[in-house]
Design goal:
The protein has 308 residues and is of the alpha/beta class. It has a single domain, classed as Purple Acid Phosphatase, chain A, domain 2. Helices cover 23% and strands 28% of the residues. The chain is built from five helices and 14 strands. It has helices at residues 26-40, 43-56, 73-86, 166-182, 209-219; strands at 2-6, 60-63, 92-94, 120-122, 125-128, 138-142, 145-149, 186-190, 223-226, 233-239, 242-248, 265-274, 278-289, 294-304. Strands 3-2-1-12-13-14 form a six-stranded mixed beta sheet. The radius of gyration is 18 Å and the shape is globular. The structure holds fe (ii) ion (FE2) (2 copies). One fe (ii) ion binds next to loops. The site of one fe (ii) ion (FE2) has 7 residues, from loops.
């Protein structure tokens, strides 16, 4: 099974917002966009990454949030249109990032507008889209691989980009991982925020990361995917069955390297094996070469079994 993971796309803001739309936390976000972010995230770079991903024909594509920037109505309109033009919703799913929940909005007026790409099954329930931001996780199963999409992105106060799953989601993540583990599935948890300490400053971190790690220790998990830091992060967490890999994806829309950030990237995983004999998971980090506009493998790693 081949799985692509894209994150932190930050599609351009399509039109100048109305003043009334900026009378909140968006004012700062829009300033940051016009000064910096619009230069750091460009749709031409993203288009090259998406074209490479389409050529690779993965069995499934997971997108871990930050499709947009300040959650404007116009951004969700172009966001859903962009998804439909580029990804088949039958083999693609996403979960929101903090920029897709930038201010408190009714679910159907905010990230819920991307709901066509958030459909999935839940324990004992047929596939459907989430009813609101707490109606997660949902599960997508492709053969022996199951992806569990959690939502770590409730709206936050100005200056904050923290994440939170909450007790309800943590309980459902626990029961889904238990159920899928008993069924012998390869379980991949997808969320926006990093799960390891120190990956991001406190004001951008997942508040209940320790509680999530306690759940994962008990239930087990085969791989965790996240975004949010805009940099590639390979790490691991402890489970009762041993260390399990965490793969944080870099932004898929950086036109060039800047500071400690790489040009646009995405991760392409190959998953083989089965529960009794063990899973093998390898990853190719695909990166844009700004000079030639080609996308090449920058790094190849074995993630599972964990290297000694
Ligand atoms: Fe982001
Ligand atoms: Fe983020």
């Amino acid at each position: 099974m081949r799985l692509a993971h894209l994150t932190d796309l930050h599609l351009p803001i399509p039109a100048r917002p109305k003043l009334a739309e900026l009378m909140n936390k968006r004012a700062l976000g829009y300033l940051s966009w016009t000064r910096n972010r619009r230069h750091r995230h460009q749709k031409e770079a993203l288009a090259l990454i998406v074209a490479d991903c389409q050529r690779e024909k993965p069995d499934f594509t997971a997108i871990s949030g930050d499709l947009v920037n300040i959650s404007l109505a116009s951004e969700f309109s172009t966001g859903i249109q962009w998804l439909e033009e580029n990804f088949d919703r039958r083999i693609t799913a996403m979960t929101p990032g903090n920029h897709d929940a930038y201010i408190p909005l009714d679910w159907d007026a905010g990230a819920g507008r991307l709901g066509a790409y958030m459909g999935g099954e839940r324990q004992g329930e047929a596939a459907r889209s989430p009813r609101d931001e707490t109606d997660f996780p949902f599960v997508r199963t492709i053969g022996a691989v199951s992806l569990i999409f959690a939502n770590s992105s409730p709206p936050t106060a100005p200056g904050l980009a923290t994440g939170r799953l909450g007790d309800g989601q943590l309980a459902r993540i626990r029961s889904e991982l238990t159920r899928l583990g008993e069924a012998g599935q390869c379980r991949i948890l997808v969320l926006h925020h990093p799960v390891t300490d120190g990956a991001t400053p406190r004001r951008k971190a997942l508040d209940d990361a320790a509680a999530l790690r306690a759940v994962l220790y008990e239930t087990g998990v085969e791989l965790i995917l996240h975004g949010h830091t805009h940099r590639s992060i390979f790490s691991d967490i402890e489970t009762s069955a041993g260390a399990r890999p965490v793969a944080g994806g870099a932004s898929a829309s950086h036109p060039t390297a800047h500071g400690r950030y790489r040009p646009a990237r995405y991760n392409l995983f190959t998953i083989e094996g089965d529960a009794p004999s063990g899973w093998r998971i390898d990853v190719d980090v695909r990166e844009l070469d700004p000079a030639s506009a080609a996308v090449k493998t920058a790094e190849r790693r074995r993630l599972l079994p964990s290297p000694p």
